[in-house]
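Please predict the structure of the following assembly.
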Amino acid sequence: MEPGDAARLGPGRAARALPPRLLLLPLLPLLLGRGLRAAASASTGAAADDSSAMEELATEKEAEESHRQDSVSLLTFILLLTLTILTIWLFKHRRVRFLHETGLAMIYGLIVGVILRYGTPATSGHDKSLSCTQEDRAFSTLLVNVSGKFFEYTLKGEISPGKINSVEQNDMLRKVTFDPEVFFNILLPPIIFHAGYSLKKRHFFRNLGSILAYAFLGTAVSCFIIGNLMYGVVKLMKIVGQLSDKFYYTDCLFFGAIISATDPVTVLAIFNELHADVDLYALLFGESVLNDAVAIVLSSSIVAYQPAGLNTHAFDAAAFFKSVGIFLGIFSGSFTMGAVTGVPSSLTGAHVTKFTKLHCFPLLETALFFLMSWSTFLLAEACGFTGVVAVLFCGITQAHYTYNNLSVESRSRTKQLFEVLHFLAENFIFSYMGLALFTFQKHVFSPVFIIGAFVAIFLGRAAHIYPLSFFLNLGRRHKIGWNFQHMMMFSGLRGAMAFALAIRDTASYARQMMFTTTLLIVFFTVWVIGGGTTPMLSWLNIRVGVEEPSEEDQNEHRWQYFRVGVDPDQDPPPNNDSFQVLQGDGPDSARGNRTKQESAWLFRLWYSFDHNYLKPILTHSGPPLTTTLPAWCGLLARCLTSPQVYDNQEPLREEDSDFILTEGDLTLTYGGDSTVTANGSSGSHTASTSLEGSRRTKSSSEEVLDRALGMGDQPVSSRGTRLVFPLEDNA
Amino acid sequence: MEPGDAARLGPGRAARALPPRLLLLPLLPLLLGRGLRAAASASTGAAADDSSAMEELATEKEAEESHRQDSVSLLTFILLLTLTILTIWLFKHRRVRFLHETGLAMIYGLIVGVILRYGTPATSGHDKSLSCTQEDRAFSTLLVNVSGKFFEYTLKGEISPGKINSVEQNDMLRKVTFDPEVFFNILLPPIIFHAGYSLKKRHFFRNLGSILAYAFLGTAVSCFIIGNLMYGVVKLMKIVGQLSDKFYYTDCLFFGAIISATDPVTVLAIFNELHADVDLYALLFGESVLNDAVAIVLSSSIVAYQPAGLNTHAFDAAAFFKSVGIFLGIFSGSFTMGAVTGVPSSLTGAHVTKFTKLHCFPLLETALFFLMSWSTFLLAEACGFTGVVAVLFCGITQAHYTYNNLSVESRSRTKQLFEVLHFLAENFIFSYMGLALFTFQKHVFSPVFIIGAFVAIFLGRAAHIYPLSFFLNLGRRHKIGWNFQHMMMFSGLRGAMAFALAIRDTASYARQMMFTTTLLIVFFTVWVIGGGTTPMLSWLNIRVGVEEPSEEDQNEHRWQYFRVGVDPDQDPPPNNDSFQVLQGDGPDSARGNRTKQESAWLFRLWYSFDHNYLKPILTHSGPPLTTTLPAWCGLLARCLTSPQVYDNQEPLREEDSDFILTEGDLTLTYGGDSTVTANGSSGSHTASTSLEGSRRTKSSSEEVLDRALGMGDQPVSSRGTRLVFPLEDNA
């Protein structure tokens, strides 16, 4: 066994060695520059004679140069993003749909990458290096004695001996290379949180069962199929002699895991724009959000698969079950962490805003919300779980409970804040991807592996979608049609998560090959599939446009968000024309039945628990606890129930709309979210009226939607913009 | 001369040695933790035998432990901020005014600091350290050869030999210690930008001359007086034997510079809340914003004062003039950078939004605005200027031009975004200050120096305010009264900027003593002066409350912002009752005269240039360039002028209100900003109506304000919420 193997087999975070002087800060590499400058100056403080004064000046200049380069490299990214934004605007303006903003960001990234790679002189590094032989192992901190002064050094990573010189060659290329952990700790959390936070949608909950099946079973199936196919490809490469280094089965499985994280951002943006079928949208969006979480945990448990003994690459049942245990442990831990920290957040949100007037201070509310969401990430990381996964479920919980406790002002503020963060982070990642194709210095292009990977992800996606849809259709009243299945098959894009997982560890030959392949897969899928979505939709006869009674239709005056493609889950706007009593079974009664069908007993149980106990405690809505809790809990119930609940008791105020329809034992509400949409729309109204006036079809969409909800001949009381359907509740 | 001296005399960023393992990341120390973990794992990949597997496990655990501690330390800060926010809310709710949120953040910081200091066990550091002797100097990068593998190390800083062991003692204390550059590169920019962005206020421009005098002359005077007084104190300490190390005259001047940066955040919050005199508010706010910029540049040019030759502490004319040159160079460079990068930003803002419809995409606009403002900071840093100063002037330019090009939605979004960033950053700095009193490990408490410093800042402030006010009053029609002068004297609080400058360099004994003293001065001034503001106001008979016709009065329904104290410069709200023709010279004609008096020829010249050329190019307002430019520029003029300008030509639309009144040769406008205030107020309206209904005095305030503007018997045309006073313009 070679000395390098341990790194390859070692635990997941192992062996990231290059690029050597990573920029630790994504946002402010300056910091590092400054730190170095200060340190360098400090280092030269040791001697005060003339030669050291000269040296000090040299070091100072060197450090300033480094700081300047940091600023310039960050400026490069900012200008890239600026350019992207300006071009996106042009595209939106001209209604160009074949290229999404993320695809555009990648193209600009590519161009800048080419310029940096071939346009800048290959200067030798400014850092003086010094060899110093040590005996047994590398420590994370080093104390160095220089003429009686002690200096502290921190370990950056390993450098393979052959690259010691080449590594130093191009400063600019190194400056634009970020520490991969930046993606996990800074860029992904806002993206994932925003996805979770915007998941509050009745179509999502209506299709929850199918979404969970696609996300969990589907991702696992896809991972194993791709892994096995790739193992075949690797074997083939060995025979053909195309493989120059080791590539194990676990590596293949790891590749299967990272490449199973779909990110149909392009497709979803077009769906929004074209108002495509909402159920299909919910299926795709829900799957992509959840399978990111599955893929990240799956990949880390594959890495944790370490058979004992010398036979390190044979199957080992103990290690396998340990991996499964790790998967379950991390996933459920992160899930619980996210869901549970959402609760104190909404408890503070509820009990501070419920009994008090925090909502008079939207700034405080927004800041509190931001801090609480962030602390979830940190708490999960502190407990050894996966912060990104915790943040996802925190986002969902926050949307479900906390959101309803926020003031109207704060709702719009938090949405907008996370929208901007999400937008910047996402475009940054995609432009970084473009850049990385040329600036990343350890690419391993293997045509056989790349072609094999394309075939494998195609087959993996097929084996994921079609059989699963078949089994799901057995249980669903409203079947997932063939055209939907084809569309889901087609929409298997790869994006930010696959890239972040792939770049996290590029130390070994196998990982480098995977990274290169992942990058190419992302490019291909975003450009080709993104561009082909519109033709595909019409070819598959998927309903688009205003004929489809989707809730997006109601959002005409928030249209501009959709076209930007970053806020796909807006809540419905205030319907000033919603003072109407809905009646009659619509033509869409099949959908209503399906809905009833899908809300199986498990969900009904959960919904009833949520409605009777959680909602009254965590929000202002629901029945007072005094009516739902047993009599002996009276005092407790009185403490926990907001006084507003009593005020709202009749008719019941239901503040959120992600309900599950039941056979009549629960209060059904629709449009509870309508208050939400005061959002920022009041401001944008004027602007969009002129632009979008022609596209509005305010008329009947809502009516049709309500019919779609399958609420037939039930008594309806309408209060303001809120339609409440009080059934025989409060048992 | 001792070996350590060079560090003390060296250039400004020199010689910051401890704390040794600084957290480079303020937001995500995780990153470092992860980086270390990866690096540590990489390091152990070298050997694959059994003992190294054990070692690997140990290193892995160690790295995970470190990562966990990073998360916990960041969680500590987040919980601190959360606690602060909740308590602030309580204070706002109970209308407690004696303690401001920043004072509160400091108290909580203190408490947590005490717990961390005395409550956590003094564990020895987990990092293995190794000595390795080098010959001549310390390099910023080190290559270490471990059993044939090369590892890269980065210099962290110097450690004084005596502290090698003590340094490692308390992990938790080290974890909560940030790299001082974090303050300059991450926390200060949003605070300073927000200050600049909210400076768009007519009262500021009306008092511009006085504000500039206070900020430039005043800060310089204060710096030299404090510096000289402190030099006396230091001499005294030497005689008494209280001084154990070197303390030079330049150190004293440096202290004078850093302590001259006032930050009356507490006083201004109370002014807002009590609706104190607007001119006094403008003087205080304007002075504090600009003197931050002066102090930062002043301190770095004092540090750059390095006399040639051996006599390093005598006066050297060449070095002195070099310092002055550096001051002027950096300041004007940063100013130009900020002002000029504001221009492409507003040009994009103007010419993209002017000729196009970017304002239909508020998200894109907001992101663009954010990126452009940030790129100013980076550009200034890349060019060797001061990013913080550039950001300040960028903020002012953005508020003056770009803001007017933004859509209503984006105006509120950008304001809210920077409001949240500012709020979080400010409270973070103040709670860090509280923490630092106990966790910072190199405090030098010198009672004589501290008492001397308190006396010196008192005298320095007095020598700054009273003589300058005397001279200013010679030129001002509307004198700055004695009570105003006393109030300004009283409001000389020290805050975030003084702290950031002091903590930037704590390597030498003198600097450590300065840091400790600065910390105590900040504590004292924020708590005592902050608490004493309300009594002081009434004692000095300064007009407060609704009797004073301030523009804040009009903002009743945005009241909640003011009470949070972070958005002191709101624009006036949409006055639906503003369809009134103003007439007659108000009782306040003295103020009108003063206004005319102050708008001297220089400002008139600037205003006319701004109005005739800059505004039409950069915004949608002003006269078309075709009318103002000479005939031979016709084509250029036509290109640069927005078509909307022609539409708006009659009556002239003036989009911003920070105008300077002139003798009648220019169009005067009032209330141009009124559209602005659609801000977020539509959302908060409902909430505040109930709470603040009792405090509203919508009635006459506006009328009085207009009278205050001294616009007498001029014809008035009112268009919607905008009042335009077209005079004989378009000469």
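Residues 546 and 553 of chain A are 7 Å apart (CA to CA). Chain A is about 60% helix and 5% strand.
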